[in-house]
Design brief:
Shape of chain B: elongated
Order of helices and strands of chain B: HHHH
CATH class of chain B: Mainly Alpha
CATH topology of chain B: Helix Hairpins
Number of helices of chain A: 31
Number of helices of chain B: 4
Strand content of chain B: under 5%
Oligomer: heterodimer
Shape of chain A: elongated
Number of domains of chain B: 1
Radius of gyration of chain B: 20 Å
Distance between the termini of chain B: 57 Å
Strand order of the largest sheet of chain A: 1-2
Structural class of chain B: mainly alpha
Helix content of chain B: over 70%
CATH architecture of chain B: Orthogonal Bundle
Chain lengths: ~800, ~120
């Protein structure tokens, strides 16, 4: 059954409409705008849920003439991401109602969050790659605004710029990857397409019906674009999903208000990268292989490295939000690695962990927000024994962090088990160095265990004496966290049926063609298979290492302080370098000298024109041109006088001489018009030239005589530029006059301007005058003439103002 | 038929105008712009052909094959007038510039701006 196009479009449109109205609503409702936004999010998720199971494509014609249409595609994966964006959106908006109490800039905050939610829904639902790119970058822009919410704080400005710079740059790489795919598609399909999936003419095709994936892969390999395409898309995904070494923006992004961190920087926006990988997986990973070319090693390597290093960084964190940020990067690494594995179990890992991670990590962020809000500090060392003050929060945290640690029977265990399974199977198949994969996976998971327990320990142990009074959190903040904890519990206890019914279509979205009768299932293990042993090693290793947590913490911190190992150093140095370039360049480009600008513009125009002739040819034989001198002697003489006049202007020793010689040029041009059969021009030129002469003399009377002697070196350089311009003009005149176009337009005016013979004196269809130039000016092109008069009027007004201002003593 | 003489003359006028635009003296820059706009007008007229007869025809038209292009002339007529407007404005700006800064040297103006 196809999804309802009106409903899907509404899901996309409602958040944006809601965002547009948010500032108005804020005027009326004030801080209760949170509940208005929550209602919108609830509406979106309700509409989305109503379409559950109606997988398929909706094509909305946008500009039919250009064959541009908006292609929406709903399947398990799209539904999951859409549900996370709108469903967690509801909880985050409610939570914001408590958290943002008394904070500045709330209208902006809710507007941006709603725009973000709409963009995220767009990323999930749109499969046209160019539209996807637009929504993708919109989420980056929204994230920028939200991280920089506290506009006066330098740290949040730094963080906002960093996040924007890294994710938007990555998005541009991704766009190039998309363009490569579109280019290659034209060799396989009828014409270029940017639709990824869901239509006859799409890159992947319609799952179960049409498959183009293999043909596209072959075309990519043939054109040598296979590795670049995957690499470029991977950069986009890695920057967005904070993979190493692009993870550095995520911890800084914690400057944002905590609901934003919970929503954008753990549950949804950072999931866009892994979503993209899952979405593209059917295109690049063929069925029944153990490793897809490039794909597997790239993403498994990236994912496992991020998972392990970010988990170690989380152990070294001193701030609870920093810990959660690194942990988020680590879990995103797990998902990336999962999608990287070519076996079916890889797709299962990625799909299931997106769901599990969103549930437990959003919970923990909301808890972190509650702790910061009520205890007034986010420092791990300063916190402890919070269970006495916040027993309910302690229970919520226990559920979520045990799930994060991957302890059975919590849901985090299931997806981690799937990762172990995938790593083990791949290692088993390839042998040799591939055995590193399960080892690294277990090693990273031990650190995950460690920091999860450390976070939980905030609620146990001794309460530091310096910790002040802690208030009970408001219901608006407690409720969303509680709801999410219940979601985690439901996912944990109902893992088997949920996997069977809900996760199954999500997994299938990332498979090109699932085997006959394939159905995803998850259950607690009942025999000691390798993955189970790996989990046992993880947990036992974690418990054994936990007493040495502090030593590990300090050890990793020391490692982090080595400059060479810190990506932040490279980032900061690059930014300083770029800023330095920005300082230097204007010194040469923006010299405040008219001369520089004129020289650059004129030489550039000449270079382009001459270059164009050189490359494209002139279409005429210019050597032939030189033979045909056909100008009457009087015109030649007059023109010679004009050039002499202009030369005299250039060499004029004083202003007065220059103006007079300029007049020689002007009046000879008038004579030229007479000889060139243009009497109207000659008349106008004579009048105007006289006026200009008078004007110049009037102004010169008030100006100093002359200064600025010519320097030889400068004169030579200017002479070269001037000669180049002159040469360009000469050649263009030769080229254009050599052509002989039909005089279509002129012909029309000559026919229509005079009174036709058959009309006598009454005319409606003709200009009705003998002087064709005049008829054109006042009749055929009268609007142009009016524009001309307006220009003169404006110039007159400007002149009056300029002189008047001076007389009133104002300084311009 | 190529207009060799006009091509050379126009090239020379443009070159002389450009040279003036690159000078330090604002008045000279204005002259340069004036020369270039004069040359442009001549250029346009040349494009329309200069060998025909005057585009004034008697009642009922006729003989129109011989006339020069009237449309180009109409455009240039407009251009001449607008050129006057811009020259006048440029001159007044020059005058005001001198009043405000006491100099017409663009080099000097740029350096004093930097030092501010």
């Amino acid at each position: 059954m196809q999804p309802d196009s009106a409903i899907l479009l509404a899901v996309l449109a409602i958040p944006f409409i809601g965002a547009a109205l948010a500032p108005l609503v804020h005027r009326v409702l004030g801080e209760r705008t949170a509940y208005y936004a929550a209602t919108i999010a609830a509406l979106c998720s309700g509409l989305l849920i109503s379409q559950y199971g109606r997988w398929g494509t909706v094509t909305v014609e946008w500009i039919p003439a250009l064959d541009v249409s908006l292609v929406l595609y709903l399947d398990g994966l799209a539904f999951l991401i859409g549900l996370l964006a709108s469903g967690i959106g509801v909880l985050v908006f409610i939570y914001s109602g408590g958290y943002m109490h008394g904070e500045p800039g709330q209208a902006k905050y809710y507007t941006t969050l709603l725009v973000f939610m709409g963009s995220m829904l767009g990323v999930a639902l749109v499969v046209d790659l160019l539209s996807l790119f637009v929504f993708w970058e919109l989420t980056s822009v929204a994230s920028f605004l939200l991280i920089g919410h506290y506009q006066r704080a330098d740290r949040s400005l730094y963080a906002a710029r960093k996040a924007m710079f890294i994710t938007v740059t990555g998005g541009l790489f991704m766009l190039i990857g998309f363009l490569l795919l579109g280019h290659v598609s034209s060799f396989v399909l009828d014409g270029t397409t940017f639709t990824l999936i869901g239509t006859e003419q799409s890159l992947i095709g319609i799952p179960g019906q049409v498959t183009h994936a293999e043909a596209i892969r072959h075309a990519l390999i043939e054109k040598g674009l296979f590795v670049p395409a995957i690499g470029l898309i991977a950069i986009g995904a890695a920057t967005k999903s904070a993979q190493i070494p692009f993870h550095i923006w995520l911890p800084d992004a914690m400057e944002a208000p905590t609901p934003v961190s919970a929503f954008l920087h753990s549950a949804t926006m950072v999931k866009a990268g892994v979503y993209l990988i899952g979405r593209f997986r059917p295109l690049f990973v063929p069925e029944h292989v153990f490793a897809a070319e490039v794909w597997t090693w790239l993403f498994v390597g990236l994912g496992l490295a991020t998972m392990t290093i970010a988990a170690m960084l989380a152990v070294s964190a001193t701030d609870i939000k920093e810990l959660l940020a690194y942990s988020t990067a680590s879990h995103l690494g797990l998902i990336v690695a999962g999608f990287g594995f070519a076996e079916t179990v890889g797709a299962e890992t990625g799909a299931f962990h997106i769901l599990n991670h969103a549930a437990f990590k959003a919970t923990l962020f909301l808890v972190a927000g509650i702790i910061a809000h009520e205890a007034g500090t986010r420092s791990i060392d300063a916190l402890g024994g919070l269970r006495h003050d916040m027993p309910i929060v302690a229970a919520i945290t226990a559920v979520a962090s045990l799930s994060m640690a991957g302890i059975p029977p919590f849901n985090g265990f299931y997806s981690k088990e799937l990762l172990f399974d995938a790593a083990w199977e791949t290692a088993h198949h390839f042998g040799g160095l591939a055995w590193l994969l399960p080892v690294v996976a277990v090693f990273g998971s031990i650190f995950t265990f460690l920091y999860s327990i450390r976070f939980l320990w905030l609620f146990f142990g001794d309460r530091p004496t310096e910790l002040g009074e802690i208030h009970r959190p408001p219901v608006a903040m407690l409720l969303p966290a509680g709801v999410l904890a219940i979601v985690v519990l439901v996912l944990s206890l109902g893992a088997a049926p949920i996997a069977h019914d809900f996760v199954n279509p999500i997994v299938k979205s990332s498979l090109i063609a699932p085997a006959e009768g394939y159905h995803f299932s998850a259950h607690l293990p009942h025999s000691l298979k390798p993955p189970v042993l790996m989990s046992v090693v993880t947990i036992v290793g974690g418990i054994a290492t936990y007493p040495f947590y502090d030593r590990l913490h300090h050890g990793i911190r020391r490692l982090r302080s080595v400059a060479l190992l810190a990506p932040n150093q490279y980032y900061d140095r690059a930014i300083t370098g770029i800023a330095h370039v920005s300082d230097v360049v204007p010194r040469y480009v923006q010299t405040d000298l008219m001369r520089t600008y004129a020289a650059v513009v004129m030489s550039a125009v000449s270079a382009f024109a001459l270059g164009g002739y050189l490359l494209g040819g002139t279409g005429t034989d210019l050597t032939e041109a030189v033979t045909g001198v056909n100008l009457a002697l009087p015109i030649t003489i007059i023109l010679a006088v004009a050039v002499i006049g202009a030369l005299a202007v250039d060499r004029a020793p004083s202003h007065i001489v220059g103006v007079l010689t300029l007049s020689i040029l002007g009046f000879t041009v008038a004579v030229f018009y007479v000889l060139a059969s243009a009497p109207d021009l000659a008349l106008t030129q004579l009048v105007i030239e006289t006026l200009v002469l008078v004007l110049f003399l009037l102004v010169l009377d008030r100006l100093p005589a002359f200064y600025g002697e010519l320097r030889r070196r400068r004169a030579v350089l200017d002479g070269v530029i001037a000669a180049a311009v002159g040469l360009t003009v000469t050649i263009t005149v030769l080229v254009t006059t050599a052509a002989d176009p039909s005089d279509g337009i002129a012909h029309y005016f000559v026919e229509k301007a005079p009174v036709p013979t058959e009309h006598g004196t009454l005319i409606t269809d003709a200009g009705g005058g003998n002087n064709i130039v005049n008829v054109i000016l006042v009749d055929f092109r009268a609007l142009d003439t009016m524009g001309e008069i307006s220009v003169v009027a404006m110039a007159a007004l400007a002149i009056l103002t300029l002189i008047g201002m001076r007389n009133r003593g104002e300084r311009a | 038929m190529t207009e060799v003489v006009l091509a050379i003359v126009l090239g020379a006028l443009y070159a002389l105008g450009t040279f003036l635009v690159l000078r330090r003296d604002v008045v000279r820059v204005v002259w340069g712009v004036t020369i270039i706009s004069q040359a442009t007008n001549v250029y346009l007229v040349t494009m329309g052909g200069i060998h025909g007869s005057i585009p004034i025809v008697s009642h009922g038209g006729g003989g129109h094959h011989a006339v020069t292009d009237p449309l180009v002339q109409a455009l240039v007529l407009t251009a001449i007038v607008i050129g006057f407007g811009t020259t006048a404005l440029a001159l007044v700006l020059t005058y005001r510039l001198y009043q405000e800064h006491g100099t017409l040297d663009l080099q000097e103006l740029a350096t004093t701006e930097d030092s501010q």
